[in-house]
Amino acid sequence: MASSLFTKILLGPRSIHTSSSFFTHHPPPILSSFIATKRLFSIRAVPTSTAQNTRSTCWSPCMASSIVSRRATYSTRSAPTNEPVVSVDWLYDNLKEPDIKVVDASWYMPDEQRNPIQEYQVAHIPGALFFDVDGIADRTTNLPHMLPSEEAFAAAVSALGIQNKDDLVVYDGKGLFSAARVWWMFRVFGHDRIWVLDGGLPRWRASGYDVESSASSDAILKASAASEAIEKVYQGQAVGPITFETKFQPQLVWTLEQVTKNIEEKSHQHVDARGKPRFDGIAPEPRKGIRSGHVPGSKCIPFSQMLDGSQSLLPADELKKRFDQEGISLENPVVTSCGTGVTACILALGLHRLGKTDVPVYDGSWTEWGAHPDTPVDTTAQAE
């Protein structure tokens, strides 16, 4: 059913060489068609405007020649072993390598009114797979996009066509946001050959590199199959062949119980990636029924402080300054959290650049902690 339905509505991939007005007056049919099939994905279909993100990416002769001249400076397949990110130039030079797979992991806050699958269909890096952050998640909890079980993750990733031998480059539509979450997820399940694309899709397009418009039937069907695989695992049904084997790394993920224990033991420095007003308890949480404030003893470094104006990861010396300013010692263990476990991964990414590769993320983060009736909550007023 799903296969035949998607085959009927899909358009073939093509590179964007048109002005943004084309999409304003002639939206791709798949955008409206997708609404009717949204139940195949675990994504809310929300109103979105993609015209501002579909500017022409045609190369000028100058741009093309500069890209060619750069090729000599990038060694194919020499991904950095000590860096969590790769540049758009590196990816361009290695895009056609058979064991490199590119993953679009775009996800947006509900109030942004952006639909990641629709934006993927309008413009994505050629050949990129789509990773549904909300869909490839634990189906036994009401908390948003919690880590799935090992079996469920393996089934979903296998359905996407990813294998253990693959090198993965993950990106998102904001520059550097939800891609860090998927980077962390793969590492939790034992796959270290993964990098975040520094600056994401905006940097890729600003550099003059082509994007594809509309998704191939293969890409959409794989995304659908991944969602269906997750459902089958949690329903106890058999799934297709498994091409990706997991090796769970428990040291990279924390639970509510571990955070509670840490308040007394202080084995880890707890850093919260939310904005300061939410951390201080003077701004309401965006989700209903959740108290404002922070975990006692935690400190606040908003995730935006890890990034420059182009949404790329800051150099190591600048990152270190951010942690030094909040009294976070890189010599001691750190655990990170945020609202729902997404931007906490950006802090983990920054700490990885600084050599701390074992930073756990509190998966439930403030959505779990602030809604729990028995967890202690501090605010700025209390501290004063």
Automatic annotation (TrEMBL):
What is one process in the GO biological process aspect for this record?
Answer: embryo development ending in seed dormancy
Its keywords, alphabetically, are: Repeat, Transferase
Which reactions are catalysed by this chain? 2-oxo-3-sulfanylpropanoate + [thioredoxin]-dithiol = [thioredoxin]-disulfide + hydrogen sulfide + pyruvate + H(+); thiosulfate + hydrogen cyanide = thiocyanate + sulfite + 2 H(+)
Gene Ontology CC, one term: mitochondrion
One Pfam match, by short name?
Answer: Rhodanese
Segments carrying the region annotation (Disordered) are 266-295
- Compositionally biased spans, kind Basic and acidic residues: 266-279
Cite the CDD domains for this sequence: TST_Repeat_1, TST_Repeat_2
Q: Which GO terms describe its molecular function?
A: 3-mercaptopyruvate sulfurtransferase activity; thiosulfate-cyanide sulfurtransferase activity
The Rhodanese domain, residue ranges: 96-213, 264-378
Asked if Glycoprotein is a keyword of the record, the answer is no
Quote the InterPro entries the UniProt record gives: Rhodanese-like_dom (IPR001763), Rhodanese-like_dom_sf (IPR036873), Thiosulphate_STrfase_CS (IPR001307), TST/MPST-like (IPR045078)
Highest rank taxon of the organism: Eukaryota
* Biological role: Catalyzes the transfer of a sulfur ion from a donor to cyanide or to other thiol compounds. Substrate preference is 3-mercaptopyruvate > thiosulfate. Involved in embryo and seed development.
User: What is the designated name of this protein?
Assistant: Sulfurtransferase
